[in-house]
User: Fold this.
Amino acid sequence: MRVSSMQALAVHGSWRYKSAKRVRERFYTLQPLRSAVDGRMPEKEMILTIRTILRHAAVATVVFCAGAACAQQRPDLPGGYPARPIRILVGSSAGGGVDIIGRAVAQKMTEHWGRAVVVDNRTGGGGVIAVELLAQAAPDGYTLYGGGSQVVTATPLKKVPFDTRKVLAPVAQMTTSSYLFVVAAALPVSSVKELIAYSRTKPISYGSAGMGSNTHLGTEMFKFMSGMDMVHIPYKGNGQALNDLIAGQIQTQFTSTISGAAHIKTGRLRAIAVTSLKRLAAFPDLPTVSESGVPGFEMDNFYGIYAPAGLPPAILAALNKEVVQVMNSPDMKQKVAADGAEVAPPASSAEFKAKFARQIELWEKFMKTSNIKLE
Assistant:
């Protein structure tokens, strides 16, 4: 049978019309609701259909509102910043102290700023690899670094081929933790002055967490500043040194407050000082080393956020304000206290930069004038 051109056109047009109608019916969101209203749908199915439509509408509303919130520029942030995710480099593996604090800060910043802030663990070289990556990054506020004492000692110990004071911009200090100066229970001393005097009559040995550790370097600095002579016994961790101190195998060491407090209460160890410049609220009766005959001595391990040098002042100020606010929130204070540390007092980036420089200068002076062995 022959089909005329008009018939063919009619058939084609009918097919196009029906196809378009099917497409409209399939993707037209309100079509099921229209059927329900027209009475062409059972009551039970109608109720389920309406609920489904309302659920999808609610999800769409939430997504739209969230997108609008992310896109809305906060008045206290520099124009356009942040426009993409922010990365915080961490030189330790997941689960370490600075990693835990860094992730908590990143989560809060993500919630507050509406942009993803993620932790990027770059281990190796005692945290130095992460420092080098930061030094090479663009100073635009999208690459930061979270670290502890390793960023301070990197230049004095010549672990990096640059001066960290020139290539890094300290943003904000997050935490601070001091040490307890403890001695074996059998040692007949109850103060720093008595320990120094006792060392002139009998040899004293001290334990540390290992060569180049913070407790090793800190004790060597104490020896340098006090003029006291002690023999270094390195261990594979501070806990092992603490056990030998309790057993009387060594005479003294620096230990964290959380590690030493229980042993002090039971009388297995005796605390003679704290290493902060001010007395600790948890140990108000313990004097500082500085007020005990070694003026200016301070030993702490603080975590901070850093950026590449050259960061625009407005972005630096915004980052400092955010980190300080996050760290001083009640839940963060509780989290940090559970680890035996304290949230750093609110301070500007300039104040943190000054502390950073003082710490490096102290270590440089110490390394030049002492005979410390790191190998």
